[in-house]
Amino acid sequence: MAKTLFKNLIILVITLAAILRLWKLDVVPVSLFGDELDVGYHAYSVLKTGRDYSGNFLPLHFQSLAEWRTPLYLYSAVPTVAMFGISPWGVRLPAAMFGILGVWLLYLLVKLMTGNEKLATLASFLLTISPWHIQYSRAGFEVTQMLALYLAGLYFFFRGLKTGKYLVFSAICLAFTPWVYSTAKLFLPLTLVTLFLIWRKDLFKVSKKYLLWACAAFAVVVLPITYSTIFGGGAARFNYISVFSDPTMVPEIGFARLRDAKMRTPEAQIGIQPTVLDRAFHNKITWPFSFVFRNYLEPYSAKFLFIEGDLNPRHSPSGMGQMYKFEFFFLLLGVASLIYSKLDKKVKIFLCVWTLSASLPAALTRDGGHHATRLFFLLPPLIFLTSLGIYQAHEWLNKRWQKLFLVSLGGVILLSFVFYQHLFWVHYPWDSERWWHAGYEDAIKTAVSESGKYDRVIISMAGEPAYIFFLGWSQFDPKVFHQNYQYREDGKWLPVETIPNFGQISKLDKYYFGSPGVDLYSLANVLPDRTLYLATAKEVNVNLILEPERLPGDLKLVKSSPFPSGEPAYYLLTKVDKQGL
């Protein structure tokens, strides 16, 4: 009876997880932002040519316009882009599916580690309704895939301690995590060392045949991505975001030394030589270390977890933390319960190490202390500890109070969840519309459909660099792009042509990328004849949706592309010809 009950419960939990991650996936978030379009166009290029859009054949790291990207999620998007095109469904569906899979895998892992089906079901339910997990399951982020592989790897590892053949599957799943997201390149070695140190005696009892197979499988999978990271472009991204390469470090150190000098000698000026003590306290070792330490501690703060969360609207809705406020008490209770519980000592140690080391990779990066994407490995142990706190609170009560506890807790969870859903579906689309680059899809697709009426289409570069928005939303032929694209450090990847009043601007077929740097009332004076110009609302600086009469007589408004809130996002403008058309 109990077995059937829990089987039905986990089916309901996974069904709920699927609904929360798939329902209106193309509606909220409101649009594909630049990185998602980058995923989509890479996948589209692989589908059509076998190469990334930079022309590299089946690469180990995809060469984007701004960075090098880990490959597995992009390859995972190829089938969905083949089915749905470069669209929210095409780009986001893999993240949603791996998010759903992660819920099931957490259930299996907790059940295997603790032998407690109630606790496993509760943990999977909390992950199902987790705002942190839902957010990343509904956008083209790689981390749900990374986490699913990691959870699968741990599950097969613990099964492999009893049945050695599963260690091969564990090795493969874990070795693939660095293929998904760069955080795993630092976190995976920590995990492997921890697993070996804690369970080395158990591992040595496993048949050598299975151990050799597991090591061989791990090496085959992990060595190519390791080589590409070290000797290819894979390390470029970390070098860019690392605290050790922060361009503000040198001036900040200089300012700190000058401040010390002024404390001693108020008339000290810039250029004064620092003393030995100044150098000892302010240097390229102490400065980044202080940032790493702060970044390490910040993810465990109540401010990040329960109050503000990640302030980037793409990573978290404003108005709440990464977790529900009701989870705060149970998380603390779960930590205490873990210490005094009857769980296997090895499992306790592993969970502690997992929790305390999950923020280390993010701590090495700028703003890593509140970067929910880079901190995604922290989510499962927090969910487990919260679940353990709820479970123990229930078990400590006598039967008379257990029902009241469950009813009260159910009401609190329901209210918290309803509040979050209201925030997500009602407020979030408008609050985050600019961060998701809403309006670009309509503007680009309209420009492409209208392009036959004009000699050229110029797409403004006054806001975000427009290349990937054009390539993605137009589904521009990758073969043609390969013929025109050439990687350059200065960012001039495309052929250039001189357009009067625009200067030398990039060109792709009849599409040009540049801005004249003038206001609305001077635009007709610099815009060439028979040219369609896609302008940002910021450079127009007039709301032509509410005040169409303010459009100059020498310009024609072809179309306005608004944000979901109704505010203008982009305009398609052309110069009125001599016949007034």
From TrEMBL:
It is a multi-pass membrane protein. It holds the Pfam family PMT_2. The chain crosses the membrane at residues 89-110, 139-158, 178-198, 210-230, 323-340, 347-364, 376-393, 405-425. InterPro entries: LipidA_mod_glycosyltrf_83, RgtA/B/C-like. The keyword Repressor does not apply. It comes from the Bacteria. One of its GO terms (molecular function) is pentosyltransferase activity. Residues 71-222 form the Glycosyltransferase RgtA/B/C/D-like domain. Signal peptide: none annotated. GO terms for biological process: lipopolysaccharide biosynthetic process; response to iron(III) ion. Its main location: membrane. GO terms for cellular component: plasma membrane. Keywords: Cell membrane, Glycosyltransferase, Membrane, Transferase, Transmembrane, Transmembrane helix. PANTHER family: MANNOSYLTRANSFERASE YKCB-RELATED (PTHR33908), UNDECAPRENYL PHOSPHATE-ALPHA-4-AMINO-4-DEOXY-L-ARABINOSE ARABINOSYL TRANSFERASE (PTHR33908:SF3). This is Glycosyltransferase RgtA/B/C/D-like domain-containing protein.
